[in-house]
Each structure stands twice: as structure tokens, then as C-alpha cells.
């Protein structure tokens, strides 16, 4: 059953305007961006659906031509974290790279006239319905998967309005120089962020209170706990490595009593799948024991998702900031 | 507005319980903002907000749920006193 979109008049969603004077004028990423991303985006704007649909079936082949470093890096991590044989890890890494291309193409065609949206297959929607029926709002927890944006837009089309907590446009293009940053702010960020309509930025000092306002309207907030850049990160053992998990979603659920529902998203060539899992039990106690127990429950759910859809995780070949010493 | 002294006491209790900080009533009364006394990240702010709601058996209106208002101690205390008075009046009516 689709949820009604909460009307939150007066809820300012703009993120702070952060301009760094320390940025160089231009970086190597700017050059790659201008020579690769922008022309490709222009082509997709012109040819729209036709070009995209002809590109997608070749995504897998295109991945094989990508620099071996990214592929090897992903493969190495998959072996270490999922403990799978090397040949299986290689297959997963290739599929992951293919999914990355597919997700990038989806982003590129956003805003063009002929945008292609896959049909959405909702799995176990009753878990979300049951949680919404409690009338306290719902916190969806989902890993950073390559299908997250597409799935969110798919849910919107089906009438399920959700508020994602995102890192915000002040962090996007953070490794670019001042020239492209200005260009990005004017031309690219509006495309990338206006498509989201409503969102909460994690760097906003009112982020948690805004989430509470959404939840009290029986709205849906989606949070990805696999980030290391928020203040609420705690070190855990996650799939055989030391990892940082944000506990913001757990604290929100513990303090407000809102149901915490895992959401798994993955895309195949033709369909975007969104699966809701049973509500996670959250201890409401304020002690360290309750918090640790909640964290263990969340980690277990995240590991389950990783094993179910291992080729979808966005961070397989990304460098992640290690957990700070004081957090250990 | 006349502020009930119990509001400060109850606020001190919330700060001790929810934030684990030992702040005296005198310090609270002298401070303009809670941020001046305690470092509040977004989760701590939420703990404090929910703690106040539970202590005073109220629910903040949507437009009051922001850091500026919640950490503005004189404004918060005035608001809580008013809510407390309204509660007493409502109980008296019933």
C-alpha cells in the first residue's frame, strides 16, 4: 500500500553552502570529468532512450575493458570479506563492475527527455505496510547499493514517498577544483539533487530533528548505515574486517520507538527489485548493553544483505577512511 | 512570564539522565544556550529533546523541533512553563 507523502511545511531542506578556498583551480578529476562524463551525458541527452538501451547490454563487455586495478581491488575485498573462492570472487567483481556502469548510465540519463525507468518489483511489501500501520513512521535501513537511486525513484513512481538521509551537495564533487565546483553547483547539482525532491542532509545540525518531524507525520526515512563520515560511527567487525557503522538509524529508532525495517535494492537488466525484510527488534534501553545489542542486530541484517546480493555494494573498490583511533 | 522553579529542576534531571552531564541549575540559569555548556551532536540533541518530552509529558510542535529553539534555554524554559500551566489548568477543568 503506498504511503501518503508527509506535508512538511517550513521544513528547510537546503544544505549549507560550503565553498572551500583551499581547492585548487583544476584537478585531474576535473579533466576526466570534462572529457568523459560531460560529453557522454550530452550524447545521452541528445539520443536519450535509444542510446542508453543500446549501451546497457554491452555493459558487461565494457567492464572487461576497464582498468584491471579497480577490478582486482574489488576481487581482493570480496575474497577477504565474503570468503568465497577466487573464481567466484572474480565473477562477482565483474558483475559488480557491470552494475557500476549500469548505475552510472542511469545517473547520466537523469534529466533527459527520454529517461528510461525499469519496472519495479516489490518483494515482501507487507513488512513495510505492517510497520506503517503502527503510525509512528518507518526508518528504512539500506546499504549503499548501486541500485539505491533507481529503486528510490521506482518507489516514488509507485506512490511510496521516502526521505533519504544523504551526505549533501556540499560534499559532492569534493575532489574537484574550483572551476568545476562552480560549474557543478550551477549545472550538475540541480540535476542530481532536484530529482530527489525531498531529502535530509546528514551534515545538517538539525538532521535528526528533521527526521523526527518526517516520522511523526508517519513518513518514511531511509538511512544507509555503511558510512564512516558521520559522528555516530562505531567500530564493528563486519564481514571479517574492522569497519565503521553509523548508529544514527538505531538511535533514532531507540529514542522514537519507530520501526526499523531493512530494505534491499538490486537491479537486473530489466527490473529493479526492492525487498523489505521483517522489522528489526530494537532495545529501548539507554545502557551500553542495549546499544551493543542493537548494533549487533543491524550488523547481522547488513551481512545478510551482503551475502544475498554481493555484487551490488557500492564500496567494493572504493577507498574507505579507516575508523579513527579514538573510536576504537 | 513567570517561570516555575520546578522547570529548571526537571531540566537539570533530563540533562543528567539523557546526556549524563552534571550541570547545576545555577549554570543552566546563567547560560543563554545549552550548546554553551554541553557539546551536542545530532544524536545528543535528539536524546535531550526526547528526554524533555518524556519528562514534561509533552510533544513539541513540528515547528519547534529545531536546534535553535531546543537549545535556547530561556525560550525553552518559558515554553515548558507555559505548557505546564496549561496542563495544570486542563487537569483542574477535568
Unreliable spans of chain B:
none
Q: What is the name of the CATH class of the domain at 117-327 in chain A? A: Alpha Beta
Helix content of chain A: 40-55%
Report, as a whole number of angstroms, the end-to-end distance of chain A.
42 Å
CATH architecture of chain B: Orthogonal Bundle
> From N to C, what is the helix and strand string of chain B?
HHHHH
The best one-word shape of chain A is globular
Provide keyphrases for this structure.
heterodimer, A: 328 residues, alpha/beta, Glycerol-3-phosphate (1)-acyltransferase, 7-stranded mixed beta sheet, 11 helices, globular, disordered N terminus, B: 94 residues, mainly alpha, Non-ribosomal Peptide Synthetase Peptidyl Carrier Protein, Chain A, 5 helices, 65% helix
Summarize the structure in words:
The complex is a heterodimer of chains A (328) and B (94). With 328 residues, chain A is of the alpha/beta class. Chain A has a domain at 117-327: Glycerol-3-phosphate (1)-acyltransferase (3-Layer(aba) Sandwich), CATH 3.40.1130. In chain A, 45% of the residues lie in helices and 13% in strands. In chain A, the strands form two sheets. Chain A has a seven-stranded mixed beta sheet, sandwiched between helices. Chain A is globular, with a radius of gyration of 20 Å. Residues 1-19 and 321-328 of chain A have low confidence and may be disordered. Chain B has a single domain (5-93), classed as Non-ribosomal Peptide Synthetase Peptidyl Carrier Protein, Chain A (Orthogonal Bundle). Chain B is globular and about 40 Å long.
Concise synopsis of the structure shown:
The complex is a heterodimer of chains A (328) and B (94). By secondary structure, chain A is of the alpha/beta class.
Topology, please?
The complex is a heterodimer of chains A (328) and B (94).
Chain A (H helix, E strand, L loop, with lengths): L27 H20 L1 H7 L3 H6 L3 H15 L3 H24 L10 E4 L2 H7 L5 E4 L6 H10 L4 E5 L11 H17 L5 E2 L5 H10 L3 E4 L9 E6 L2 E6 L1 H9 L3 E8 L4 E5 L11 H21 L20
Parallel strand pairs in A: 1-9, 2-5, 2-8, 3-4, 3-5
Antiparallel strand pairs in A: 6-7, 8-9
Helix pairs in contact in A: 4-5
Chain B lengths: L4 H15 L5 H6 L11 H15 L10 H4 L2 H21 L1
